[in-house]
Structures are given as structure tokens and as C-alpha cells.
Amino acid sequence: MECFQTVAIPGCVLTEGVRYIRFRSWGSIMREAVHHLRSRAPCFHPWGSTMGRGDVGEPRGISELIPEDVFVGTSLILRQPPVPPRGGGRFLYGARPPRAEGTRQVIELTGIGGGLEKDDPSLTAGVLREAQEEIGCTVRLLPCRETIVVRGPDWIERVVLRGEERPAAVVFRRYRTPPHQPWHEDNQGEACLVIFLAELVGQPRPVMELPALLWLKPLQVVETARQDVPLNTLLHWGAEPVESEKGCLPRTAWARLTDSQEALVLALGDDALSFYEAVSGQ
């Protein structure tokens, strides 16, 4: 039987200090962010005080949010269990095979998950199947009190969902867009992506089309959604690879978060770091 834990996701924003750091050197970025998070308490205020963030509406069912005429996929904000010695605070992503873009090699990072199959009886069944197929272990879903619905870069609302399927977010974005532009007019269609919060149960390993997995801290999730980041920089500041073959991720490559969580981070803007800190389990 599935074991559930209810998790609160407060609408919040971190006080000024992180907004501008991504335009500086990577060493400066990480040093400033770590200092900021350790030395100052975050300042919280409701979504309603931020443009484009709506108040919580009446309870709805998950099916009321999902149109019938778009591709529907699932994804996981997959956190490390908050137990010693690691202590939690990290999220696991799949790493696709590196590919050349001009003079760079780029590694696309993606949340564990995928499209629903006709035999999947529910969104939950689909995402649990994908987790088993992609990382070779089970996960424990954590239903959320509120769900963030992203319909565009300036169109976000919070809803309370009825029933057992209560994801962290439902994100509408376009696919096959230019990097870090999930709503760009140059695209190949629209998708509805349901993002569940979950914890690992067991030891993950890369299987199927993923040559590696990568553990990221909240700040690294946010930065790789906003722009490409050198893999060596991520590793220096605490990211940890889980590789099918040692060295299959070229250390000279650049990492880029894609798909549903790229869109979620960009839509949340200055609230993104506080969101991932809140759901990290620390």
C-alpha cells in the first residue's frame, strides 16, 4: 500500500540578493548564494502580492485541469530522503546523452517521468512506472496541500485538489522550443505536464535511455533552468553524478535543465529558489 505524507508548499519569495547573481562569475554565484542562504532568513509573502500569482481557488479534481486535446506527461521533483549522513536537500534528475551545439557539448537534464501510456490507469500509475523504468527503483509520492498551475510565464495560480492525486504542479508549456524559452512561438505543439513531489525508496541507477543521473541542490536546479551551466562548476559546488559508466558525462560539457521543471522555474521567477528549498525536505 502506498505510504503518503502531506507536504505544505508555501507561496514565498526570497529577499533580494539572488535575483541578479546569475550574471556574475560562477564562483561568485555560488559563494554569494551560500552566504545569502546561511546568513539571512527568507522573507515570505503570499502569491497574491506578486504579479500573475493568483489566490487559492475552490477545490477541484485533477481531471478538471487537464484538457483532452494536448499531450499529457508526468514528472517528479524527486528528493533525497532527509536522513543521515546526507541529510536530504537534493533532487535527482536524469541526464540525457551529451550532444554537440556549436563548439559546446550540452547535457540536457530532465525530471524522471514521461508520457502516459494507454495501459496506465492513472497519472500516479504512469509516473510510478516511469520511475521504475528510468532509475530502477520505487519512489514514494508525497501529496501536496496545494498545487501550482502554470499556464504561462505570467499566469500562475494555486489550487486545492480533491482526491488522492495531488501533485506539486501542473505546467502547460510548448515543446521543441529554443533553450530556456518554454513558451517561444517557435515550437512543435503544447503539452500539459503533471509534476509530483516524491522521495526515493532504494538506490537509483540509470537505465533505459539515460546514461547517467545527477543530484542537484535547489540553487543548481534554478540556475540550470535559467541558463546553461558548466558541469564542472556544478560538481565543484556539490552536484553528484550517478553514471552507468565512469566518465560517460564529459566534465567539459554544459548542463541544461529542460522540460516541465525548466518551465516551472522560469514561471516562478524570484520565487523559484524558495519553492525548491521548501519542498527539499530539510
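the 2nd protein, sequnce then structure:
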Amino acid sequence: MAAPRTLYEAIRETFDFKKKSAEDFSVELGMSVNSIYRWNQTEDSVGFADLPLRRLLSVLNVSNNNAILDFLEARRGRISVKVPRVTSLPKNDESKMISDYQLITVGAIKALTEFLEKPSRINYLNCDDALKDVLRKTVAIDKYSAKKASGQFEMEFN
């Protein structure tokens, strides 16, 4: 499923009244049905303006800090990875990119093995960090590969 393009679309998808009524949402959230309906109005309405989430993106942009987003992702059992900007690389840098990815991946396997052999809080944190590093690097390489495959870079044909 494609990600919603606007906050309004995301809210409409979240508050799916075909699956659960506004009344059910209000009871489970401990708020009025009226608030639920107001939050589901178009972005230029007064009700939508009351939605605290509407300001979150501005807060994240102004602070240049994703701690709130990371916290919310963790609470939902998800992980977010920033999609990096990528540019074309010379062939020798592409080889270095592959080598770096291999080192990060091997490091994660080593950290996971150590954790599984000796479960401890420290080993868990090391393993968690190493696995997240692999995810971040994977996202970066995926974006680079997609751009290269689509011909957005000047490709060398030998």
C-alpha cells in the first residue's frame, strides 16, 4: 500500500469508519465523537486545525530532531530509517560502498551471535545498534541502486 500523500489522507486512513465507528473510536480514546469527526474534516477546516498532530511535522523540521518520531515508531513496534540523498559515485567508490556494506553486515552478524551466545543488556544494545546500522545502509544502497537503474546517473558502458 502506498503511503498517504497528505496528513488528511493519513488521518482518513487511520480513522477508517468502515472498520470501526466514530463512536467506538471515541470510547476507546476517551474523547468526544465530535472531536473524532472534527479531526476527519478537510485540512482547511477549523476542526482540522485543532489536531495537535498537524503541528508535529513543523516541530520536527524546526528542531531538526526526530526523537519524537523515533519514540512513536518504537511504541508502535516499528523502526524508521531516514532516506538519504544520493549522488553518483565513481566506480572505485561503488566498490568501497559494497565493502562498507559487507563490513557493517558482518559486524551485525557478529553482534547477533554474541548476543545469542551470551544474552545481556549490553550485548542486546550492541546487537540492536548493529542491526539498525544495516537497515540504514540498506536503505541508502537501495536508493542509490534505484537511481542508477532508472538512468538518473550518467552510466559508464565499457
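Confidence is low (pLDDT under 50) at residues 154-158. The CA atoms of residues 60 and 66 lie 6 Å apart.
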